[in-house]
Amino acid sequence: MAEAAHGGEVAVVTGHFGFAAGVKSVERTVPLWALMLAAVWLDVLFVPLYLLKVETIVNAPGTDGGYGDGIIHADYTHSLVGALVIAALTGLLCMRWWGRRAGVVIGAVVFSHWVLDLIVHRTDMPLLPGNLGDLPRLGFGLWRYHAVTAVVEALLVLVGAALYWRAARQTGGSAKRVNLVAGLIVACGALTLALDVAGL
Amino acid sequence: MSFFVGAILFTALVGILDAKLPWPKPRTGVK
Q: Distance (Å) from the C-alpha of residue A129 to the closest C-alpha of chain B?
C-alpha cells in the first residue's frame, strides 16, 4: 500500500519483496525484477487510483496514521475479486513473454499480495470491487501490533534473502555477485522497513 | 516514500544485478 493522505506510510511493503525473493529460489526461470514488481503490483495500481481519490486511506481511530495505522479503502485493487482479476490478467500477459508456467507464477505472486495484506489489514478489505453489496470486509488486523508486524516483515526479508542466496549459489554465477545481491535484498529491506516504520 | 524507495531498489537495483546471474531462461510459450 502506498502513502497515506497525510504523507505517512501505513502498510506492509518490505514483506512483499521478501516473499518475492523466496519465490525466486523455487521458480528460477522467472526474472527476479518481475517477481518483485508482481509482489507489489496491486499497490502500483493503487497509486493512480489514490491520486484520483477513487481509493483512499484514513487514519485508524485514535492513531496518527503511521505504520500500520491506516484504514485503507482500496476497494478495487485490494478487493478479493479485484485482486484475482488483476492477478489473472497480469499472469496472462506474462505468459506471452515467458511462457505458461512463468505466467502462472507471476499471477500467483500478484495475488500473494492480497493474502499477505489480509493478515495485517484492519478489516477493510472488501470481497467485491467497490464493496458491491456492502458485504463484510476482511482483515485479521495484525497491524494493531506494530512491533510484531515489523518483525514478521523483517523475517520475510531475511528468510527470502537466505533462500535466494542458497538458490543463486547453485547457478554457477559469481559468488561475489550472489553475495552482493543477497546482501542488497537484506539492506534494501532494512532501509524500506525503517522508512516505513518511521512513517516516511 | 518507503513504497517508492522499495519499488525502485528491489525492482531496478536488485533485479538488474540479479539478471546478470546465469539463471535458467524461461521457456517462452506464445510467440
A: 23
Write the ipTM: 0.88
AA identity, residue A122: R
Domain membership of residue A1 (yes or no) is no
> How many A-B residue pairs are in contact by the CB < 8 A criterion?
117
The whole domain housing A162 covers 14-197
Rounded to the nearest integer, the mean pLDDT of chain B is 85
Q: Which three cell numbers stand for residue A49?
A: 487510483
Question: What is the total count of domains within chain A?
Answer: 1
Per CB-CB distance under 8 Å, the chain A contacts of B10 are: 17, 20, 36, 185, 188, 192
Q: Which of chain B's residues have a Cβ under 8 Å away from the Cβ of A72?
A: none
The type of residue at A39 is A
Q: Indicate the pTM of the whole model.
A: 0.92
Domain range summary for chain B, segments of one domain joined by +: 1-26
Note whether residue A5 is domain-resident: no
- Closest residue by Cα to residue A107 from A88, A135, A79: A88
